[in-house]
Amino acid sequence: MNLHPEINLVFSYGTLKRGFPNHSIMEEIKASYISDASTNFKYPLLLDGKWNTPFMIHKKNFPNSYKISGELFEIDNKGIIALDKFEGVDKCYYKRLEIEISYKHTNGDTTSKDAWCYFRYENASKLLVDPSRFISFYGKEEVKKYTAVHFRPFDWRNK
């Protein structure tokens, strides 16, 4: 997972987006919002059953999945290291991989770029059995059911 020289593009599809429960992390690391964006390929995006945490699975163009809508940010290398820690990359909760995304400039032109994205690390094949659970966008309705980490039991990752 090599970092880029100084500035990295990160695609956020869930609770790190502006106006969502964990966006304060993005503010702390001084992430700069660029634009709304979407993946160029389809991926499964689901909510975990207990905490309603959104997560993507790295299965490009998986049947019945969607191009995922989210936000694009610029983040420096220190910020990426902090995000990796927040996402539990070192504990194999999530993995950071580059994907192709598209976004519109203020002048209306569309650009495709590679951006980092966090994917659920565990073997998620059992979660792919029911495509009716796939969503294309994590929005205000979905976040109403989200349980923030600081409201979960101490050993929540072991349950």
Question: What is the number of strand segments?
Answer: 7
Helicity level, as a percent range?
10-25%
Q: Could you state the CATH homologous superfamily? A: Gamma-glutamyl cyclotransferase-like
Mean pLDDT: 87
Major β-sheet strand ordering:
1-5-2-6-7
Order of helices and strands: EHEEEEHEEH
Per CATH, the architecture is Roll
What sort of overall outline do the alpha carbons produce when their principal axes are compared? globular
CATH class equals: Alpha Beta
Share of residues in strands: 35-45%
| Low-confidence residue ranges | none
CATH fold assignment: Hypothetical upf0131 protein ytfp
Task: Report how far the terminal alpha carbons are from each other.
Answer: 29 Å
Structural class: mainly beta
- Distinct helical segment count: 3
Brief description of this entry?
The protein is mainly beta.
Notes on the protein architecture:
The protein is mainly beta. It has a single domain, classed as Gamma-glutamyl cyclotransferase-like (Hypothetical upf0131 protein ytfp). The chain contains 3 helices and 7 strands, in the order βαββββαββα. It has helices at residues 23-28, 77-87, 140-143; strands spanning 7-12, 32-43, 45-47, 54-56, 66-76, 94-104, 110-120. A 5-stranded antiparallel beta sheet has the order 1-5-2-6-7. Strands 3-4 form a two-stranded antiparallel sheet. A hairpin with a 6-residue loop joins strand 3 (45-47) and strand 4 (54-56). The protein starts with 6 loop residues before the first strand and ends in a 16-residue tail after the last helix.
Keywords:
159 residues; mainly beta; 13% helix
